[in-house]
UniProtKB/TrEMBL annotation:
The chain crosses the membrane at residues 7-26, 32-51, 72-89, 152-173, 185-202, 208-230. InterPro entries: CDP-OH_P_trans, CDP-OH_PTrfase_TM_dom, CDP_ALCOHOL_P_TRANSF_CS. It comes from Microbacterium sp. LWS13-1.2. GO terms for biological process: phospholipid biosynthetic process. This is CDP-alcohol phosphatidyltransferase family protein. The keyword Transmembrane helix applies. Keywords: Membrane, Transferase, Transmembrane, Transmembrane helix. It comes from the Bacteria. Belongs to the CDP-alcohol phosphatidyltransferase class-I family. One of its GO terms (cellular component) is membrane. GO terms for molecular function: phosphotransferase activity, for other substituted phosphate groups. Pfam families: CDP-OH_P_transf (PF01066).
Length: 255
């Protein structure tokens, strides 16, 4: 068990090496490096705690894929901070680097679930790990895109965390949601949309339209889940059979 808990830290070391490599091409301030490392360390500590609580005996190939995505998110986080500080070299090179790292992270999002199913290593911890990496990447993309479409774009990345805060005060908001593949689709589409905005390949008006469409999609997805939870709370009974739903959808997950 102790060996398993140390495995995720290899990706922290890889992320630190990645920050050094990026710093050789794009100037990264001490703050940018510190924030990138902070994300890697905090996320790894939380993952380690989860492994310990569940008594995991092996890390698993699917978690390794998600950990690689998380490492890429750490690099993207550092680049975002540098861009906001004005420390990054503006131009095609820095934009291509940012977009490439994000594209790799988004592409791997479709790999970890496949690997988990193929290796029979699906777990609640793995699904939660995957979901939290997705949520933080969206938030970082929103922060990066603030310069192009305005502060309102942050609402896309903050919806997930607003959902968690609401659950802290309303116990019925913490009920397990029925499986719904549409959540993954919306997350992927929003990630792609925000990456297109970050790439700055469209006119300003088109960037606004793309970001607005992403926000509407996210509001629809969260709105549907909140509506289901409200109806469940008011009725006092299960409106959807989780057992029946799981036979046609990916493993159950919560927001």
């Amino acid at each position: 068990m102790e060996k398993v808990q140390w495995v995720p830290w290899w990706w922290v070391a890889a992320g630190a090496g990645g920050l050094v490599a990026i710093g050789a091409a794009v100037p990264l301030s001490p703050t940018a490096v510190a924030v990138g490392l902070a994300y890697l360390m905090v996320s790894t500590v939380l993952l380690t705690v989860g492994l310990r609580r569940r008594g995991a005996l092996r890390f698993g190939p699917a978690n390794a894929v998600t950990a690689t995505r998380s490492m890429l998110v750490g690099l993207v986080t550092a680049l975002t901070v540098a861009a906001l500080e004005g420390a990054a070299v503006e131009g095609a090179a820095s934009t291509v680097l940012f977009v490439t790292l994000v594209a790799c992270a988004l592409a791997l999002d479709g790999v970890d679930g496949y690997v988990a199913r193929r290796t029979a290593s699906e777990s609640a911890l793995g699904a939660r790990f995957d979901m939290e990496v997705d949520a933080f990447l969206l938030l970082v993309l929103c922060v990066y895109d603030v310069r192009f479409v305005g502060w309102w774009v942050l609402s896309i990345g903050l919806l997930r965390y607003a959902f968690v805060v609401a659950g802290a005060g309303l116990p019925w908001m913490r009920r397990t949601l029925p499986p719904r593949y549409w959540r993954k689709v919306v997350t992927a589409v929003c990630g792609i949309a925000l990456t297109i905005v970050a790439a700055q390949v469209l006119p300003p008006e088109a960037n606004l339209a793309v970001a607005a469409a992403a926000l509407l999609l996210m509001l629809e997805s969260f709105g549907r889940d909140v509506t289901w939870l409200v109806r469940l709370n008011l009725s006092g009974r299960a409106l959807v059979s989780l057992e029946r739903a799981s036979t046609t959808s990916p493993p159950p997950e919560s927001r």
